[in-house]
Amino acid sequence: MCRIEAWKQRVNQLKTETCAVYLASKDPRVPWYAKALVAFVVAHTFSPIDLIPDFIPVLGILDDLIVTPLGIALALKMIPEPVMVECRQRARETMAGQKPTGWTGAAIVIGIWLLVALLIVILIIK
Description:
Elements: H1 2-25, H2 32-46, H3 59-78, H4 81-97, H5 103-125
Helix pairs in contact: 1-2, 1-3, 1-4, 2-3, 2-5
C-alpha cells in the first residue's frame, strides 16, 4: 500500500509541475520554442483523450509515462529558473483548488486521429 501512495504522490507532483510549466508558458520571459513544446505537453497531459488510448496494452501506458516527463524535462531546460520558481508556487495553489482539464488538448488529439485515419484511407485507395 505504501508504494501505491508513493506513486500517487509522484503523479500529483508531475501534474503540478506540468501546470507550473503551463503557467510559465504564459510569461513573456519564456522563449517561443519553449512555449510551443509546453503547449504540446500540457495538451497531452490534461487531455481527457490520449494520443494512444490506455486500453492498448503497454503502448497506452508508455505514452503517458514517456511523453509527459520527457516533455516537461526538456521544457524545464528552456524556461528561466526565476520564472519557474514563481510558477511552481502558483501551480500548487491552482492544483490545491480545482484540477484543470484540457478540452483543447482533446481537440488536438482528435485532430491527430483524423489525420492518421485520412492517411490510412489515402494509402488504401492508392
